[in-house]
Amino acid sequence: MSSSRLLRRSHARAQLRDARFRYPSRRETEVLKGLSLELRPGKVAALVGPSGGGKSTVCHLIEAFYYVNDGAILFDGVNIKDLDPRFLHDQISIVSQEPSLFATSPSSPTSMVPVYSMR
Ligand SMILES: Nc1ncnc2c1ncn2[C@@H]1O[C@H](COP(=O)(O)OP(=O)(O)OP(=O)(O)O)[C@@H](O)[C@H]1O
Ligand SMILES: [Mg+2]
């Protein structure tokens, strides 16, 4: 399958499958330790967790700023590594967590990140 398949769809299901990830600059810390989740077209998903728990990291990975070390990220079953990052960035909108947008501080244990939407 190629990115052209995604082009014909207005929405794609995004899946993290047993995703493991360490930032290249901080190899000693495993941020995602086998995270699996599915983001379905038309549904709202919220990532909730403590500061430093990895919520923004999930966004970075969905945007293909980094690739997972183990496991996979799939859009409609297509591995993110097989998609052109520029194509992906044209399709995805992510609103990152901003203190001014939320009543709670970004370090609140219950802080949330609006994850993404496919255009
Ligand atoms: N660019 C980066 N390079 C190295 N380590 C990073 C980087 N960004 C985040 N981290 C580390 O990855 C871990 C997860 O951070 P992340 O920013 O994803 O957490 P978060 O859940 O979004 O936290 P918050 O609620 O404070 O926004 C933390 O240990 C953080 O220090
Ligand atoms: Mg964050």
Bound molecules: adenosine-5'-triphosphate, magnesium ion
**Distance between the ends:** 20 Å
User: Which blocks of ≥5 consecutive residues have pLDDT under 50?
Assistant: none
Q: Give me the side-by-side strand order of the main sheet.
A: 2-1-4-5
User: What proportion of the residues is helical, as a percent range?
Assistant: 10-25%
The biggest beta sheet reads:
4 strands, antiparallel
- Rounded to the nearest angstrom, the radius of gyration is 14 Å
Question: Overall 3D geometry?
Answer: globular
Overall number of strands:
8
Helical segment count: 3
Write up what this structure looks like.
The protein is of the alpha+beta class and 119 residues long. The protein has one domain (14-118): P-loop containing nucleotide triphosphate hydrolases (Rossmann fold, 3-Layer(aba) Sandwich), CATH 3.40.50.300. It is 17% helix and 29% strand. The chain is built from 3 helices and 8 strands. The chain has helices at 3-7, 55-62, 85-91, and strands at residues 14-21, 32-39, 46-48, 70-75, 78-79, 92-93, 112-114, 117-118. The strands form 3 sheets. A 4-stranded antiparallel beta sheet has the order 2-1-4-5, with helices on one face. It has a two-stranded antiparallel ribbon with strand order 3-7. The protein has a two-stranded antiparallel ribbon with strand order 6-8. The longest helix is centred in the middle third of the chain and has 8 residues, at 55-62. The radius of gyration is 14 Å and the shape is globular. Magnesium ion is lined by residues 55-56, 97, 113.
